[in-house]
Amino acid sequence: MLLFAMVFQFTADLRQPTYPVFKMAENNGTNRMIIVVTPTYKRMTRIPDMLRMANTLSHVKDIHWIVVEDGNKTVPAVKDILERTRIPYTYIAHKTAVGYPRRGWYQRTMALKLIRSNTSQILGSDHEEGVVYFGDDDNSYDIRLFTDYIRNVKTLGIWAVGLVGGTVVEAPKVVDGKVTAFNVKWNPKRRFAVDMAGFAVNLKVVLNSDAVFGTSCKRGGGAPETCLLEDMGLEREDIEPFGHEKEKDREIFVWHTKTSTPNIVQAKKNATKPVPPPETFGYFVEV
Ligand code: UGA
Ligand code: MN
C-alpha cells in the first residue's frame, strides 16, 4: 500500500511539474487581435531566424502574422514554416522600391496598406479590436511581450528593449506613470526615442491615419520610429509604459539580437571558373 502511494505520488509529481513552464497564454479578458508585421529577406540565417520567431508566436493566441518578403516572390520554405505554426498569417512579397533603404521600411509600409484595406479579414469575426506590432525576424521575444504588454495596448504601448542603440537597454523614463523622457544613449531628444521592437499601436490609431514609413522624414535622425508615431498624430502623453513598475530586477521582454553570418569556407579560387556555391548535400539552405 505504501509502495502504491509512493508510486502514485511520483506519477502525480510527473504530471504536475513544480518547475515553471510556458503556459498557453490567456487573452486577459480583452479580445484584441495582435497583428505582427515582419519584413524578411533571403540570407543564410533567415530560415533559422524565422523558425525561432515562429516557435515563439505559436504560443500566443489571437494573433495574425503578416510576413512581407523583400523580394519578387514568396519563398516556399518560409511559407512551410508559417503553415506549420497553424496561426493565421498573410505572406506577401514586395521588393524594396528604389529610394528606400533596405531595412524593412518598404515592407512595413505595404503591410500597413494591407491592414487598412483588409481590416475585417485580418480581424476575423471574433475580434473587434487589434494591436499592431512591428516584430523583426531576428529579435528575441519573450512570450509575455505579446500576452502581457501588446495585447493590452489601448493607444501606444512602449517598453524596454535589450541590446540596442549602442547600449545594453533602452527604456522609457517613467514618473508617476507617465513617460517624461527616454533612457537611451542615441538621440534622446526624439519625441519617441524607441526602437521598432519597443512599441505597439492600437489598430484604431493605424486606421485613423495614413502614416507609413516614408523616406522624406528627417526628424528621427535616420530612425523611422519617431516619424511614424508622430505622423500618426501621437504625443508623449499618449504613451502607456509597460514593465517599469518594479524598483529593481525589472525584466526585459524583447532583445534586439542579431544573428551573425557564419564564416563559410569557400572552395579554392580558380582563375577560369567562378567560385561554386557551398555544397548542401541536397538540403535546403538559402545560400
Ligand atoms: C534596426 C531596427 O531594429 C529596425 O526595426 C529598423 O528598421 C532598422 O534598424 C532601421 O535602421 O531602419 P536592424 O537590426 O539594424 O534594425 O536591421 P535588420 O534586423 O537587419 O532589418 C530590420 C528588418 O528588415 C528585419 O526584419 C529584416 O529581415 C528586414 N530587412 C532587412 C529586409 O526586409 N530587407 C533587407 O534588405 C534588410
Ligand atoms: Mn534586427
Explain how this protein is built.
- This protein is an alpha/beta fold.
- The chain has a single domain (32-255), classed as Spore Coat Polysaccharide Biosynthesis Protein SpsA, Chain A.
- The chain is built from eight helices and twelve strands.
- The protein has helices at residues 2-15, 46-57, 76-85, 105-117, 119-123, 143-149, 203-207, 224-231; strands at 33-40, 63-69, 89-93, 130-134, 140-141, 156-158, 161-164, 167-175, 178-183, 199-202, 239-241, 254-255.
- Strands 3-2-1-4-10-6-11 form a seven-stranded mixed beta sheet, sandwiched between helices. Strands 7-8-9 form a three-stranded antiparallel beta sheet, with no helix packed on it.
- Strand 8 and strand 9 (178-183) form a beta hairpin.
- It is globular and about 70 Å long.
- It starts with a helix and ends in a 32-residue tail after the last strand.
- The mean pLDDT is 92.
- Manganese (II) ion (MN) is lined by residues 136, 138, 258.
User: How many helical stretches?
Assistant: 8
Bound molecules: uridine-5'-diphosphate-glucuronic acid, manganese (II) ion
How do the helices and strands follow one another from N- to C-terminus? HEHEHEHHEEHEEEEEHHEE
Could you give the order of strands across the largest sheet? 3-2-1-4-10-6-11
What name does the CATH topology carry?
A: Spore Coat Polysaccharide Biosynthesis Protein SpsA, Chain A
Largest sheet: 7 strands, mixed
Shape: globular
Percent range of helical residues: 25-40%
Return the structural class: alpha/beta
Low confidence ranges: none
